[in-house]
Amino acid sequence: MAVKITDICIACGSCIDECPVSAIVDDANNPEGQDSYYVYADKCVECVGHNDQPACASACPTDGCIVWSGIASGQPSRDNIGADMRNGNTPVFA
User: Fold this and answer.
1) For the chain, what is the HEC assignment?
2) What confidence score (pLDDT) does residue 84 get?
3) pTM of the model as a whole
């Protein structure tokens, strides 16, 4: 599972600055070519073991812009991401 940025994003950049694994890019670097921020699901670790919620969500001034409640197929949920998957050697996306 990875965080998702919804269409109410105001593109302030706070989430990019706070992401510890550089999983979020702005609209200019969106690999899908869309005019919106993008989260690389294979990089996002949801800040497990460091914060009660993803750092990007804590930094976001727009309530409800960053969500992580839906489990993506083939990807572990926040509760199942252990320290072994956070060391930079194991991709989060299974």
Assistant:
1) CCCEECCCCCCCCHHHHHCCCCCEECHHHCCCCCCCCEECCCCCCCCCCCCCCCHHHHHCCCCCCEECCCCCCCCCCHHHCCHHHCCCCCCCCC
2) 63
3) 0.70
